[in-house]
Sequence to fold (664 residues):
Amino acid sequence: MLHSHQHFSTLLVTFLLLILGAAGCAKQSSPEGGPYDMTPPRVVRCTPEMGSTNVSTHRVRITFDEFIQLERGEDKIIYSPPQRIPPKALVNQKQLIVTYQDSLISNTTYTINFNRAIKDYNEGNYIEQYVYAFSTGDYLDTMQVSGQVLDAYTLQPLPHILAGVYDTPLPTDSLDRPMTRMTYTDDKGHFTLQNVRDGAYYAIALIDMDRSYSYNAPNESFAITPDSFRTEVIHRSALIPAKETKVDSLANVADSLGVRADSLIAKKQAPKSETDTTATAADSVSPYVYLPNDLLLLLTRPKTHIVRLERLVRRDSMSLMATFTEPLDTLPQIQILSPDYLTKSSSYYPDLSTDRKSLTYWLSPHDSLARDSVVVAFAYPTTDSIGSPINKLDTVTLHAPRAHVAKANAKPKKQPDVKAPETAPNSLSHAGDSTALAETKRELRAVTILSHEDIHKETTRDSLWISYDVPILAIDTTRVQLAKLVDSVPQPIPCQLLLDSVRRCRWLVDFAKEPGTTYRLTVDTAAITGLYGGTSASAEKDLKIASVTELGSLAITLTGYPTEHPLYVHLLSSKEEILATAQPDSAGLVAFKELAPGAYFLKLYVDLNGNGSWDGGIYPATPPEPVRYLPQSVNVQARFATEQKWAYDGTPLAEQRPKDLEGG
Fold:
């Protein structure tokens, strides 16, 4: 009995020790199951081997050290040279199998650029810059070409842009054949093309809308080097003199030996081992440097300023609103085809919106408009699908609004007499609502006085406008007074009232302004005669002009800039809004006056075609117009004239865009 009790005690102690031991082991492990795996998959074997020559098989097998997956392989993986029938890439656990569907070209180096398409199965760690290469001939092309892609207008680096090379000579009319070798830019816009055949090329960058690996549509953004270049490889110790004078010694040695120049360094260019898939670019560890390694491609985005009539609506019985896809440079030609009483040009009044994308036509007379449809023909300049200028004609029938038709056809009810209020009401019916026309004639129609809200605000370039809710036919100048406040006492001064030909709902109040002065504009009741009658309300607004001690100025001295074409300098906000534009004088001086204190940025462009606006490149003859930034902001202080020197090419182009500029 005692023996059984001792045996039971021994078992109990052993059981408790096992539990404590397990708890201790549990405490030693991380609650998350260990450190997070940050290592991407690594290649352990390739069939054929990386860099193999005389390859005839159509299937490539790449084995990794862990389970993998493909992310958007159809979009990310680039096969060079391009295949007529795209290869198939499939994953089987730790193996990636690529099968070429098309026939292979003899004596050609093939590359598969995976572009972050491969990642491990669990943590999603990507393999960076992994390129697999093989050759169907007895040598492997090993030259490299590197560079960066920038936006031609903003000089911002462009990530994930297709970059490649074309053999020379280039076609003279289009680039509709695929590039010879391709890759995608990284997050900083940099690219490296590996396994390029030794030769002469043009480099191109492209937003490839149709995945043709070629520039074949005017809506595709593109960039191309202005001149051809030839691939080179030099020893790193000779880098500085090699950039000053073209080095052909290696090519000469190769010619004397009867071999290809790039084959001399094939072993140096190959990766240290097939498993080292995260190694840096070859020329960063090799004693050899591949040139060119500093190509700069300025990508031109397609012109989106294709004016289209986006919408034409009859928002009420008395007005038509046309909305366009882009700001209008000139007003469309409008012709009302019916009803007959609107066919005269004096029957409609245009009013252009501030952004110049919307145009309201006010119709007169208003009689019968509530029940009649209106047929309108619009003619406006635009471009066709290939960018050629054309005149577009759109004809639209606009029916009378249903609610207004019903009310217009209803029998009128006798309305009690209503006296006009002495002050403007808080809420007014829409000016163009025909059913409320009788009411609006008895109400005071609101008048608004506007001034600048931009860089001209409270400077001598500020302005005042009288704005009305319908087109202004006339203003009684005896009911409009402009005064200068002297010790808070108004002193009348002269002014001119000018009609805006494209904004018929407002008039400009033109007068000379002095720094440090406050002006008061008063518009009395019934000063305005509107298109649809009614009585205008009164309005008043003070305009304060800052004194010279509250503002500063900026004087820029440009040096080294081209003088054979016009040059425009933009003063920018931190959001890259264009605040003001000026041109340099004969000495290269650009002046911006009456600036509020603060930080400003500077940008210029050379107007090669002299049309007063920046233009991108058009293949094959026209490059994008040159753009430059002052690399840092300029601080303007009150009371001071800030001076700034600006050398046109004083800073490399890729380093010019200020980091403090939005998007920089």
Summary: The chain is about 10% helix and 35% strand. The CA atoms of residues 44 and 624 lie 47 Å apart. The longest strand covers residues 374-383.
